[in-house]
Amino acid sequence: MLRFLPGWVSGLVMMLLLIVNTLFWATPLLIFAVLKLLSPVRGLRDLFSRAAAASGQHWASVNTVLGDVLLPTQWEIRGVDKLNMKGQYLVSSNHQSWNDIYVLMKAFDRRAPFFKFFIKQELIWVPVLGLCWWALDYPFMKRYSSKYLAKHPELRGKDFETTKKACARYATIPVTILNFLEGTRFTQAKHDDTKSPYTHLLKPKAGGFALTIGALGENINSLLDVTIVYPGGALGFWDFLCGRVRRVIVEVRQITIPHEMYGGDYEGDKVFRKHIQNWIADLWAEKDARMAVLLAGAPAA
After folding, report:
1. H or E, element range at 223
2. Which has the closest alpha carbon to 144: 120, 126, 166?
3. 50: which DSSP letter?
């Protein structure tokens, strides 16, 4: 461990090692991305996609090993023992810090497929990263605001069709899709501005969840409800690298998504929309209560 070093020194060492690891695994990933782009045969494209995903998985695994060896963080991860690397999962997690991505890597490493998350369509043009995300089969989606749809009603439903097409490739392959329902990191200012009814959470955005499960269909009927708690406070990523995040608790609940949640019209059917909103609100209320228990130091149920 680096605990004998000053915090800023251990932070620099960890940052350097993470950068080296990223550059190392980015090289084969970019090669597979180019080969996939140039391949005229669907079978070869699928092969290069799997190779790119393996590179991403190795990158994440090495990151977690570095943290285990060099940092003093104590981990309490519950509910992941029955997950399957060949499974298909939709992950919903609270979001407090940039550390959450690393935490999820740690929690699901070699237990579930390397996770993917939805990316705005415009980001595919980001140099290098856009190509990497494409090679990893991250779903690119284009969302239209309510105001924009009011002016262009002919585009209503197009975002769903785009997302559904992007997710079609997941029908027969192992996949873990990550969704932060809050849409942004928790801060007390955001909590107060949005008048969140929860103590430790922002209001969840049910529309994105409805769009996701509608596009994925019942091939993915298992929701992994993830609760991340930082007993010492949700510090920044630099603080994490410096060894100041001493303890992290992760609880994972596997929930079967009800059959009636699929196939409805979230935008056009008020009854269906209210049903999903109530289901998500109940889920969030349970998470908020569980976070209060964990932060108070009570034993796990």
Report:
1. strand 222-229
2. 120
3. H
- Provide the pLDDT for residue 20: 94
Chain centroid to Cα 281, Å, comes to: 19
Residue 158 has what pLDDT? 67
| Strand-pair category, 247-256 with 74-78 | parallel
Please, what is the end-to-end C-alpha distance for the chain in angstroms?
A: 32
Q: Are 258 and 275 in contact (CB under 8 A)?
A: no
Domain-wise residue ranges, the chain: 72-295
Contact criterion met (CB below 8 Å) for 148 and 74: no
Contact 85, 112 (CB under 8 A): yes
Cα 16 off chain centre by: 24
- Say if residue 259 is exposed, middle or buried (CB neighbours under 10 Å; 0-12, 13-18, 19+): exposed
Instruction: State which residues of the chain have pLDDT below 50.
Output: 300-301
Beta-strand relationship, 222-229 and 247-256:
antiparallel
Write out the H or E segment, with its range, that includes residue 91.
Answer: strand 88-93
**Hey, what are 289's tokens?**
């209560």
CA–CA dist 213, 221 (Å, integer): 8
Query: What length is written for the chain?
Result: 301
Q: Which helix (H) or strand (E) holds 278?
A: helix 270-295
Of all helices (H) and strands (E), which one includes residue 238? helix 237-241
Q: Is 188 exposed, middle or buried (0-12, 13-18, 19+ CB in 10 A)?
A: exposed
Interatomic CA distance for residues 280 and 203, integer angstroms: 10
pLDDT tens-digit profile of 163-212? 677 677 777 778 888 889 998 899 999 999 999 999 999 999 888 788 77
Residue 150 exposure: Cα atoms within 13 Å on the Cβ side: 3
